[in-house]
Amino acid sequence: MWQGLSICIALTLAGFGLTLIPGLADTGISPLVFALLLGLVVGNLPGAARLASSSGPGLKFATRWLLRSGIVLFGLSLTLQQVIGLGPKVLVLDTLVIVSVLFAGYWIGTRLLGMDSETTLLTSAGSAICGAAAVLATETTIRSRPAATSMAVATVVLFGSMAMLVYPLLYSFSGMEEGLFGIYIGATIHEVAQVVAAGDAVGSQALANAVIVKLVRVMLLVPFLLIIGQWWMRRNQSETQGDGTMTANGGLVIPWFAFGFLAVVVANSYITLPAPLHQGLVVAGQIALTMAMAALGFETRIEKLKALGIKPFVLALILFLLLIGGGMLASQLVMG
Question: Is residue 96 scored above 50 in pLDDT?
Answer without folding.
Answer: yes
